[in-house]
User: Fold this.
Amino acid sequence: MRLRLPLFCAAVALVAACTPGTGGGGGGDGKSFEFWSFSAINQKLSVDAYKQKHPDVEVKLTEVGSSVETAQALTTALAGGKVPDLVLIQGDDLPKFVQQPQNFVDLRTLGADDIKGDYLDWVFKQSVAKDGEVLGIPTDVGGMAMVYRTDLFAAAGLPTDREAVSALWPTWDDYIETGKRYTQQTGKAFVDNAATSVFYQAVNQVSQKYYDNKERKPVYDSNPEVRAAFDLGIKAATSGITAKQTSFETAWSAGMTQGQYATVAAPSWMLNSIRTTAPDTKGKWDIARIPGGSGNWGGSYLAIPKRAQNPQAAWNYIKEMQSPQGQLEHFGRVGALPSTPSVYKDEKLTTTKDPFFSDAPTGTIYTDSLLELKPFYIGPDSATIGQEFLNSITNVEQAGGNPATAWDDAVRNIKTAIGG
Amino acid sequence: MVAALTPVRPATPPPPAFGKTRGLGERLSPYAYIAPFFVIFAAFGLFPFAFTFYVALFDWNPIGDQEFIGTDNFVRMLGDPRFWNATRNTVSIWALSTIPQLLIALLLAHVLNNARLRFALFFRMSMLVPYVTSVAATAIVFVQLFDRDFGLLNWLLGLVGVAPIDFVQTTWGSHLLIAAMVTWRWFGYTTLLYLASLQAVPRAVYEAAAIDGAGPWQQFRHITVPSLRPMIIFTVVTSTIGGLQIFTEPLLVGTGGPQSCGVVRQCQTLTLFLYEQGFGQFQFGYGSAVGVALFVMVVAIAAINYLLSTRIKADR
Assistant:
């Protein structure tokens, strides 16, 4: 008997470790909760602010990694591990989770309907599942603008004032024409790359994207708006105005430091990476309107997994920190753009100026880019579809792909990938 | 744990007469001592391995439904151009990395085995430096060296009038870049393996050959290579199995889709394709099917190895 005991214990220990935590005993005590967020977005500042107001509440913040890594860790946890009480999900990763609403607390049961009106309608709708379950509350949005180097523009004989620069490119065709003028004058590249800075922006300015808004069926291969955005991307890729630098790669950063390109399409959250990537270019940048006038890239959501132990404490945090006032304070702390339009005219937001970007009023530039946006449905395979289109344009730009067959290649690759 | 700490009493009385059974505990205790390995292996090795075959028969969403679909995943895989592309890339990167690596290792081992080499220990140990460097660090340095616009290599090529080569976005360029990283990481390890088995060759053989007038090249061809033959077979097989599973290098080199290694999947290997399907697209069933295919390939290569090595033994 004395020999079987350890084996027995080992078996018990294994089983115990494998058994998922027993669900939340009636919403927890409301005094502590576990929070998974991304690294490098300074979430700690807001958590600290919350703790200061509520000294009796314990928040256990884990910075899991990048947004993609956080989504992967969440998937693993949902599939059979210990889940957090509160988790941040990036907009691009959200549709996969919205397809499986049974994994999350329907926030309507906690009072999401009462605060729904505070948020941009089209942003909020992206976290609503098939039968109306609300799975997440939007924490921020990206907005969209075109940042440009004033010194390089001056050297090319282009205007440098942000209003005059915005007037250069009401449309994407105007933008490409301006690029040709710049490249002719200087012999240098105008924009970092065609896929992200042109196609990805243009395709988000449509009324309907890869899926039909009503039927929610894929229409990426027949939607003329998608095709027009794709053709703009190909046009930019083949006009000789791009530096052929894929966004966020090492060489992209090096090119930015060296002034290899003069413009980058940048949502509000990218401003911080420009500041840290190329600190020596301080004051040489300014921010103009995006061609086409409006756009959004990025933004995240807070969700509560179904098996969370302390859903009530997590919801209390959401309700306070994601209120219009809470998001405004978060903007002041880290610069993330609020998803609550009621504060867009608040003085704290409109008077914010950024010295790195020649004192551009970032608050108003980015919120203006959001107001005219039309909502479109984002489906489960939207991210995959978008990636294949991007790849096809980059292939033409950087690897000598044939522009004439680029569209057909992309559509064929998408069909392979999503099995349509 | 109590039992594990209790020393098993040595049988102080002489062993009982034949036929008398010993205590049950004494007969089982050896199994308890080796049990930890087998329990852990079963939980983290055997079970996931067997489970892969099971999952491969399903349309398996880790956070959603699991539907039995029989062999549909395998049918889809055989008709999937991305699977064959990944297979081609894997074989190409394997050939580009293994062949130069083994040749370099063979020559280096021969040189390092030379009796007149000074500071031999220093040279032998420094072979291992690339091997102990983290893959991620190697990747960061190599990608910068091979960069199109700002890389040292293209700068040097530019000095002699060669147009910049894009080592990431072109198929051959990306394969060369990854193969260079793999070779860099493993040549030292292989060299030491060869060196170790060369040390077993009596020095007198080389001396006799030298007296008979054999030059260094003839010594290499007629002494070094034949005496290394079993070791060469061994390294070919291990590096082939390793080569089929190249993952980190293409993951870190790739641009475009995070797991496709380039915009036209020009350097996506089989393991990276498996990872993309499983953990990028959440198609665990399809990813598992790719894993099964990989397993079959590795088993096939191990079988070829068995045939080759038995034939070599028979030749002797």
Summary: The longest strand of chain A covers residues 58-65. The longest helix of chain A spans residues 382-398.
